[in-house]
Write a structure and sequence with these properties.
Shape: globular
Strand content: under 5%
Number of strands: 0
Radius of gyration: 17 Å
């Protein structure tokens, strides 16, 4: 979830570096925070899942904590972090679909995988979400992500393949 916000903020703050543009430190910082949160969440979830917690319950607790961080993020006085004044019906439909599939179904499956799988493999595969988001951003917005985003995605795929082997 946070990955999408990081990508959106990076895009709004000028993530594609051309001559004269600055490095998007806000997007980079939020990306690092996102990765740290994902790693800590996976590490904290593993013992809970091993003790027999229901995956849906674990997903609800983890998503509730993420929602709290979203609300706290809105308190930061940066214009890029403020929500849009008006939300279109199509965008609302995408948000509801994303909440169902990404959070509801995806996180429940992730919790179930953590209950029965190796935490390193599960975490590595779940961290591929931002890579999958790149083509979706391109399709949804019509804006091609920056070449460095594609290079990073390719490195992530290669790294995941090497770890999986």
């Amino acid at each position: 979830m946070l990955s999408g916000i990081v990508l959106a903020i990076s895009a709004r703050s000028g993530s594609s570096k051309t001559s004269g543009e600055k490095t998007p430190w806000l997007g980079i910082a939020l990306g690092v925070i996102t990765a740290l949160g994902q790693a800590l969440g996976s590490l904290a979830a593993r013992p809970a899942m091993a003790s027999g917690v229901e995956p849906f319950t674990a997903m609800a607790v983890r998503s509730g904590i993420a929602a709290l961080f979203f609300l706290l993020l809105m308190l930061v006085p940066l214009p890029a972090l403020k929500p849009a004044a008006r939300i279109e019906k199509r965008s609302l439909g995408f948000a509801v679909g994303s909440a169902f599939f990404g959070v509801g179904l995806g996180m429940s499956l992730l919790m179930a995988a953590l209950a029965h799988g190796t935490i390193g493999i599960v975490s590595t595969l779940s961290s591929m979400t931002p890579v999958v988001i790149l083509p979706m951003i391109w399709t949804r917005t019509g804006l091609v992500p920056a070449p460095r985003a594609w290079v990073g995605a390719a490195l992530a795929v290669v790294g995941t393949a090497l770890i999986s082997l």
